[in-house]
Amino acid sequence: MTKIALLGAGGKMGVRLATNLKGSRFTVDHVEVSAEGRQRLKDAIGADCVSEDAALAEAEVIVLAVPDRLIGKIAHSIIARVKPGSALIVLDAAAPYAGEMPERADVSYFVTHPCHPSVFPQNVKDGERDHFGGVSDPQAIVCALIQGPEAHYALCEEVARTIYAPVNRAHRCTLENIAVMEPAMSETVGATLCLALREATDEAVRRGVPEAAAMDFMLGHIQIELAIAFNIFKEGKFSDGALHAIREARPLIFKENWLQAVFSPEAVMASVKDICNPREAA
């Protein structure tokens, strides 16, 4: 069996991963620095933690389930104790893309991140939706082998499929691809626009629209508008009135050349560096 060291096992993400690794073909040593986290893990899956030194001494794969801004710092703190020929998996592209990872040619680096279940779900079981992923609703994942032998790609993808299960697709990408998708595409643009949609809904309520009516109207329209925009509803088209409203609204809402301002290599690099070292970038 492949031995995994799961660092940050008692955090919110760590417990999710530990739960999915339980019962898999992998043997897991759980590492958690906080007493609260150790108890959370114990309550969730009945697992005890071991010391970081003990876990790293035996690990063939190390998974860092830690906050994005700490990935580089923690990688530097453990790298001297990582066995040659092992693989280090991180769950976000910011630190490696920003050059925050330590130099270690005999250790593979691999990044993986969940896409989260789609707003247009397929093969979803009856009952409550698993919006985040990793419990019941299938999700895709993205993966990149940053350095190391090709054999480690297959091993690390298997680990990624296990920790994020159920997984319906694993997309092999480059590190740059993943950095473009997050933060630029999904957070800088996607999350910002999602909050703008909520602000617009709240503004409608402030202007007298019943809250329940506004929520139903916005969420229903988001669904059909996304289906048209992403060609999910292939026969769907925006009405002439909607197209006119879109043309009129774009210069009011978006700056000229906003895509270049967000997606240029310089902008993406500045964003990931700000994630890793927010006070330094400021």
TrEMBL record:
InterPro entries with a match to the protein in the record: NAD(P)-bd_dom_sf, P5C_Rdtase_cat_N, PGDH_C, Preph/Arog_dehydrog, Semialdehyde_DH-like_C
Pfam families: F420_oxidored, PGDH_C
Biological processes, Gene Ontology terms: tyrosine biosynthetic process
Keyword Oxidoreductase attributed: yes
MF (Gene Ontology): NAD+ binding; prephenate dehydrogenase (NAD+) activity
UniProt keyword annotations, A-Z: Oxidoreductase
Domain Pyrroline-5-carboxylate reductase catalytic N-terminal: 3-89
Domain Phosphogluconate dehydrogenase (decarboxylating) C-terminal stretches: 125-276
SUPFAM superfamilies: NAD(P)-binding Rossmann-fold domains
Protein name: NAD binding domain of 6-phosphogluconate dehydrogenase
Species of the source: Kaistia soli DSM 19436
